[in-house]
Amino acid sequence: MTIDSNESGADSRPPLEVTQNNVGLANTYRIELSKQILTIAAALFAFTVTFYGIGAQGARAPGAPFAAYAAIGWAALALSIFCGLFVMWAWERFYISYRDYDYHGKGADGYAHRKRLTASRRALLAVQYVTFLGGVVCVGLFAYFRLSGS
Questions:
Q1: Are the C-beta atoms of residues 73 and 48 closer than 8 Å to each other?
Q2: CB within 8 A of 70, min separation 6: which ones?
Q3: How many CA atoms lie within 13 A of 134 on its CB side?
Q4: I need a surface site. Which of 48, 87, 90, 100 has the fewest CB within 10 A?
């Protein structure tokens, strides 16, 4: 659906305020998704460590079947948590770069800095999502095998 400013269709773009609002909303949802994954990873990590009672000794105890799934899952969830924290830090640095560069007449340097931050943030976000999914799968497999008595 296009928004026409007049009957002849001379300019079908929405006003700048609408575009800025849409970008702001999209950015808010993106940050909230990252925060939700960060929260779920931390909660799942804490819950599984506490619930299963597999601490430093239990995961290595003789006869602890499929303990490697738990260890890998916890490592993946911990990495997901750290990546999520760094994603939040990268967003903070991205926005503060406007003050640090653009408002001091260093627009080109600010653009280059934001470009590097965006590349790093996207890589961290990909690692956060992949390690979160891997951690959930490994902890789920560990729980399944442990509860099934295997």
A1: yes
A2: 48, 52, 54, 59, 138, 139, 142
A3: 17
A4: 100
Cα–Cα distance list, 136 to 38, 48, 70, 76, 103 (Å): 13, 10, 10, 8, 44
pLDDT digits (tens, 9 = 90+) for 73-118: 989 999 999 999 999 899 889 888 888 888 888 889 989 999 999 9
Question: Which of 111, 120, 62 is CA-nearest to residue 89?
Answer: 120
The values of phi and psi at residue 27, to 5°, are: -65, -40
Question: Structure tokens of 116?
Answer: 């590097």
Question: In whole angstroms, how far apart are CA 25 and each of 28, 35, 92, 110?
Answer: 5, 15, 17, 23
Residue type, 76: A
Written as one letter, the residue type at 61 is: A
The values of phi and psi at residue 3, to 5°, are: -105, 115
